[in-house]
Amino acid sequence: MTLDSRIPSGPLAEKWTNHKFNLKLVNPANKRKYTIIVVGTGLAGASAAASLAELGYNVEAFSYHESPRRAHSIAAQGGINAAKNYPNDGDSVFRLFYDTIKGGDYRSREANVYRLAEVSNNIIDQCVAQGVPFAREYGGLLANRSFGGAQVSRTFYARGQTGQQLLLGAYSALVRQMETGKVNFHSRTEMLDLILVGGHAKGIVTRHLVTGKIDTHVADAVILATGGYGNAFFLSTNAMASNATAAWRAHKKGAYFANPCFTQIHPTCIPVASGHQSKLTLMSESLRNDGRVWVPKKAGDDRAANDIPEEERDYYLERIYPSFGNLVPRDVASRRAKEMCDSGHGVGATKLAVYLDFKDVIQRNGRQWVEDKYGNLFDMYKQITGEDPYTVPMRIYPAVHYTMGGLWVDYNLMSNVPGLYVLGEANFSDHGANRLGASALMQGLADGYFVVPYTIGDYLARHLNEHVSPEDQAVLDARKDVEALIDNLMGINGKRTVDDIHKELGQILWEYVGMARNAEGLNKALEKIPELRKEFWSNIRIPGRPDELNPELEKAGRLADFVELGELMALDALHREESCGGHFREEHQTEENEAKRNDEEFAYVAAWENKGINEEPVLHKEKLEFENVELTSRSYK
Amino acid sequence: MKVTLKVWRQKNGDTAGHFATYEVDHVTGDMSFFEMLDLLNDRLVLQGEEPVAFDHDCREGICGTCGVVINGRAHGPLRGITTCQLHMRSFHDGETLVVEPWRAAAFPIIKDLIVDRRAFDRIMSSGGYVSVNTGGTPDANAIPIAKQQADEAMDAAACIGCGACVATCKNSSAMLFVGAKVSQLALLPQGQVERKQRALNMIATMDAEGFGSCTNTGACEVECPKEISLVHIARLNREYMKASFC
Question: How many C-beta neighbours within 10 Å does residue B20 have?
Answer without folding.
Answer: 14
